From TrEMBL, chains A, B:
One of its GO terms (molecular function) is S-formylglutathione hydrolase activity. Coiled coil: none annotated. InterPro entries: AB_hydrolase_fold (IPR029058), Esterase-like (IPR000801), S-formylglutathione_hydrol (IPR014186). This is S-formylglutathione hydrolase. It comes from the Bacteria. Belongs to the esterase D family. Gene3D superfamilies: alpha/beta hydrolase.
């Protein structure tokens, strides 16, 4: 098995370790960096559940680990957290034609692109669902329990990964997810360029469509700030809520008064999400 | 009183507000930005104690607020936190001749410069001890209790501000402070250029000197990682510890095994520091 990890950095944090690793990704055809938080229990021989955190537009593995304040509670709960990057990277990886923040580098949308010039590298779905967990499970003291969560574009990613893979995840949650990407400007741009103009092909990457057909009814926790500038135009959690309700899919949408789209919002409620995952992954 | 504040940004955080303000500083002769965390109690009519946080080399007001994870406990304790920038800023403010990170912009060292071309703007000591508290006390619901803390260069700043001003602060703490700046490369460079080559003038800005003469014995809490790359060459907390011991000044130096100089270290122990301050400021 050729899945070598090169350590990039290591910082002790809440009695555990925040580590960054570089590796060659076969899904993405490029080198990738990811971060992992290993709580203190990881050094004591325990097999721990893993929460995969998917970040939003423009982020790398670093934003969540630096700004969410998740390590304190992860250390208390004995939860490993893995944070991948948000797109393939490096020379030869196609980017937005105008370098826009909402497409290409930093904006992989957690799908498998079918359109050139993106299909060669942009396979973040395969990376997040298959390759990265295989790497984690081969190299770290993990149990067979997986949770997935994310923010904004990463909230969309967490939802579709869970909804498309019954049995693979035991918990899912999202902050401010792009809930119906087929019908918002960010999603329409990304899906057009990654998947082509045929809208019927977009349906398998849209949480509000997928939730209607999900065979597994994994309870979904969503937090959303009501002063989020992207709420009406891009995020549309009510569309997901309505689709879940119609399908009898358990979803808790908490509208948080006064909160915006930033990591100050995420930090304020991350403990609730970590507990939600830890309970399901125990 | 002309002390107008221009709001730069506002984010709800743990039921309170993280706000950034811009104002004209008369001490520094330039526009400055600072951040304030107002816990939920600030909207309920309470007069709250204030903790001033001084950041380290290269930082602005943002590093601490984004990375330390302090808001959760500050909200619980009802503590206002104020984070100034680390130097004067803007056009006309002299910088390091080679743009080095350890002097000039982002490296004001919390002293009053006497040497040209720095004396015109680099008066961070006056700014932090006098101007900024006056501004805070005129504009926010604060009690007359003040604490001061900081990291690295900001740990040095917190120590000297407290030691030089008996009665002004009721609590002090530091992470990884530059404890004897007269005798380390960072401090020797900064003091030479800000204060001139006459080393006897440096003594009033060095915590390990000041602690020997302090009339007020305010208990000092210091956390220091033992895998901090700057420990031996720059920080020298043992020098401060020895000086405090000789003077009978209460100082708790906690060597934290495995921790480095980063905000991952600060985040791991910030709650202890906030409690240390809240108890003294109650």
């Amino acid at each position: 098995m050729v899945m070598s990890l090169e350590i990039v950095s290591s910082n002790k944090s809440f009695g555990g370790w925040h580590k960054r690793y570089k590796h060659r990704s076969s899904s993405l055809n490029c080198d990738m960096v990811f971060a992992v938080y290993l709580p203190p229990q990881a050094e004591q021989g325990a097999k721990l559940p893993v929460l995969y955190w998917l970040s939003g537009l423009t982020c790398t593995d670093e934003n969540f680990m630096q700004k969410a304040g998740a390590q304190r509670m992860a250390a208390e709960l004995g939860l490993i957290i893995v944070a991948p990057d948000t797109s393939p990277r490096g020379e030869g990886v196609a980017d937005d034609a105008n370098g826009a923040y909402d497409f290409g580098l930093g904006a992989g949308f957690y799908l498998n692109a079918t359109q050139e010039p993106f299909a060669r590298h942009y396979r973040m779905y395969d990376y997040v669902v298959q390759e990265l967990p295989a790497l984690i499970e081969a190299n770290f003291p993990v149990s067979d329990k997986r949770g997935i969560a994310g923010h904004s574009m990463g909230g969309h990613g967490a939802l579709i990964c869970a909804l498309k893979n019954p049995g693979r995840y035991q918990s899912v949650s999202a902050f401010s997810p792009i809930s119906n990407p087929m019908n918002c400007p960010w999603g329409e741009k990304a899906f057009s360029l990654y998947l082509g103009e045929e809208r019927s092909r977009w349906r398998e990457w849209d949480a509000s469509v997928l939730v209607a057909e999900a065979s597994e009814k994994l309870p979904i926790l969503v937090d959303q700030g009501d002063r989020d500038d992207f709420l009406e135009g891009q995020l549309k959690p009510q569309t997901l809520q309505a689709a879940a309700k119609a399908a009898g899919h358990p979803l808790t949408l908490r509208m948080q008064p006064g909160y915006d789209h930033s990591y100050y919002f995420i930090a304020s409620f991350i403990d609730d999400h970590l507990r939600h995952h830890a309970e399901a992954l125990a």
